[in-house]
Design brief:
309 residues; alpha/beta; Alpha-Beta Plaits; four-stranded antiparallel beta sheet; 10 helices; 14 strands; 27% strand; elongated; ATP-binding; ABC_transporter_ATP-binding
Length: 309
């Protein structure tokens, strides 16, 4: 199956010589969720704006379902839904009128059944007669998504969709995204919440200084770059790691009540069995053992720091 979104050597240089995109190439599969991670100013929003036709590229090509965004702009843009970071809604416009207007902008015939389905899916049907100024921040975000879905796009861009939303509403937004994916909508989202990408995304792309550092399956990235730690709780606290255990690279947890051993879980030999034997030989009594794996946030921070270095 050919990708629904093809980006090849995309570049963007702003007046003054600021290079926001430095030859980004990316293919997005139909029906997947791709999360773009990166620090502020990395180029994520510029990438989305360029693909959606809000910013003119300085070089490279973008195709949406085979339609070039410059040579065949109308056909390409009709396949894209965009939810920007900023909430841009007419405060006195009613929800239903705003969503209908958005559909009309693409020259599509009236389809109240589709719009009702979208509003129900986003838990907005009961608010259809409300003016947007009467809605909460979370509801306004949902209205933005409803407007972006009004013309039945195949690709949906969500630029920081849960920014400024509390934890409960964020979880609700995750459910919305998962339902959209189940319906076959391709979703590209940017986020600063690493747990969001870890929970939702099929693949993760890391952007920094206008370059795409990598794109990889979320689970594979976690397996490839995630470290695992064995936390060894001690019955008696230590002042320092015993010299006999120096070769293990153990870290003493705060208060000396535990030792932390980091290992690669992909390795055939983790060294844990030998470590436990040496702990016993050193006369250390254990209270408990537990393990934890690096989070996507830790992996992301490590990648960005490597790129800066």
């Amino acid at each position: 199956m050919s990708p629904i979104l093809e980006i090849a050597d995309l570049r963007k240089t702003f007046p003054g010589g600021v290079e926001a995109l430095s030859g980004v190439s990316l293919e997005v599969r139909e029906g997947e969720i791709l999360a773009l991670l990166g620090p502020n100013g990395a180029g994520k929003t510029t990438l989305i704006s360029t693909v959606c036709g809000l910013t003119e590229p300085s070089g490279g090509t973008v195709r949406v379902a085979g339609h070039d965004i410059q040579r065949d702009f109308r056909a390409a843009r009709a396949l894209i839904g965009l939810v920007p970071q900023e909430i841009a809604l007419e405060p006195f416009q009613r929800v239903w009128d705003g969503v209908r207007f958005s559909r009309g902008l693409f020259g599509l015939p009236r389809d109240d059944a589709h719009l009702e389905s979208v509003l129900r899916q986003l838990s907005l049907w009961e608010k259809r007669a409300a003016q947007t100024r009467e809605l909460s921040g979370g509801m306004k975000r949902r209205v933005m998504i409803a407007k972006a879905l009004a013309h039945e796009p195949r690709v949906l861009f969500l630029d920081e969709p849960t920014a400024g939303v509390d934890v409960e509403l964020r979880r609700g937004m995750w459910e919305v995204v998962e339902r959209l994916k189940a319906e076959g909508v391709t979703i590209i989202l940017t986020t600063h919440y690493l747990e969001e990408a870890e929970a939702l995304a099929d693949r993760v792309g890391v952007v920094n200084r206008g370059e795409l550092l990598l794109v990889e399956e979320t689970g594979a990235l976690m397996d490839r770059m995630g470290r695992k730690e064995l936390v060894i709780e001690l019955q008696e606290p230590l002042d320092a790691v015993p010299a006999a255990l120096a070769d293990y690279g153990l870290e003493l947890a705060e208060g000396g009540a535990a030792l932390v051993y980091t290992y690669d879980r992909r390795s055939e030999r983790t060294g844990i069995t030998r470590l436990l034997a040496d702990l016993q030989a050193a006369g250390l009594a254990l209270r408990d053992l537990s393990t934890r794996q690096s989070s996507l946030e830790e992996i992301f921070v490590g990648l960005v720091q490597e790129d800066v270095a």
